[in-house]
Amino acid sequence: MGKVILTGDRPTGKLHLGHYVGSLRRRVQLQNQGDFDRMFVFMADVQALTDNADNPEKIRQNIIEVALDYLAAGLDPEKCTLFIQSQIPELAELTTYLMNLVSVSRVQRNPTVKTEVKMRGFEGESIPLGFFCYPVSQAADITLFKATTVPAGEDQEPMLEVTRELVRRFNQIYAPVLVEPNIMLPENLTARRLPGTDGKEKMSKSLGNCIYLSDTADDVWQKVRSMYTDPEHVNLNDPGHVEGNAVFTYLDAFSTDEDFANFLPEYQNLDELKDHYRRGGLGDMKCKKFLNQVLNQFLEPMRVRRAEFEKDIPEIYNILKKGTEQAREVGAQTMDEVRKAMRIDYFNDAELIRQQAEKFAQK
C-alpha cells in the first residue's frame, strides 16, 4: 500500500496533553500534508481490556470520548481511517500467529512492559497474560495494515523494536509478507515525554496528573495553579531551577514567541524568562499565569469543535463504523497473504487438494 501510518490510543479516558504532544498533533499535521498513501488511527479497546477486564463499561463509555477528542483535535475521517480494534477479528488471529515467534524472556526484557507492570502494581505471577502479551498485540496492529510509520512517544520505541523483530522472523520463516515499521518521534524533544502536573515523569490518567484536551478554562487553571515547580524556589528572590520544573517543561512544549508578545511582552521569548527565573526575582505564580494563558488559547478551538461534534453522537458512531469496515477490508487482504505464506490456506490451495487426491487415489 506504499507509505502507511498507523497509530492509536487506549480508550480508558479522555485524551490529555501528553497524548497530543506525543503523537496526536503530529497525526493531524501528517494527515493534512498528504505525504502518506494511507493513515489508520484506532481505539485500542482490546489492549485496554488487558488491565480492565473486570470493568468493560469503562472502555465502552470512553470510545466516544476518544473519538470526540480525535475529531476536535482535527483528525478528518475523509483523510484518515478511524476504527475500533475489537471489531477487526483478523487482529486477534495475527496476534496468535505472532506469539509463536517470540519468547517469554524477550517480552520480559521490554523496558516499556516493565514500566507498565510496575505502574499498575502487578507482582510476579499476577500479571494478566493478555497484558503481558501487549507487545505482540501491538505488533499485530501495526503489521496487519503494513504500516511503515508509527508516530509515537519515545517510550514506545522498545515496542516498535519487538515488532521489527517479529516481522523479520515471520518473513524469514514463511515469506516476505509483513513490513518493518519505523517510529516517528515528536519534533519537539521536550514533548517526547511530557511530565504530569505533579512533576512525575509521565502524564497518566491513572496517576491523576493530566490536563485533558476537553478541560474547561477553569479546570486548566486549577491544575496549572497547583503544578509542580522548584521546591527550592521558596522566596521571590531565590534563584530557581527550570530543569525538572513542570511549568517550564510545559512552556517548552507549548509556548511561542508570539505568546510572549500577546501575554508577557516584557520578555521576548522563553529563554529570557528562564534566565530571569534562574537569577531570581521572578515568582512561580507569574509563570503559571502565563502558562495558563498559553494553554487555554491553545485548547479553546478544540473545545469549540468538540461541542459541535457532541450535537450529533449517532453520526460519530457512523464514522467509526464506516472506518472499521474499511480497515477490516485491508486486514482481510493481509491475512490472506499471511495464511498463504504460512501454508494454512487449505481451502484456497487447489494444488494441495489435487496432490492429496492423487496420493489417496493411488492406495
Strand and helix layout:
Blueprint: E1 4-9, H1 17-33, E2 38-43, H2 45-49, H3 56-73, E3 81-84, H4 89-99, H5 104-108, H6 111-119, H7 129-132, H8 134-144, E4 149-151, H9 157-173, E5 182-184, H10 217-225, H11 246-254, H12 257-263, H13 270-279, H14 284-309, H15 313-342, H16 350-361
Helix pairs in contact: 3-14, 4-8, 4-15, 8-9, 10-14, 11-14
Which short descriptors sum up this protein?
363 residues, mainly alpha, Rossmann fold, Tyrosyl-Transfer RNA Synthetase, 2 domains, three-stranded parallel beta sheet, two-stranded parallel ribbon, 5 strands, 55% helix, EC 6.1.1.2
Describe it for me?
This protein is mostly helical. It has two domains: 4-192 and 313-354, Rossmann fold, CATH 3.40.50.620; 205-309, Tyrosyl-Transfer RNA Synthetase, CATH 1.10.240.10. It is built from 16 helices and five strands. The strands form two sheets. It has a three-stranded parallel sheet with strand order 1-2-3. The chain is elongated, with a radius of gyration of 24 Å.
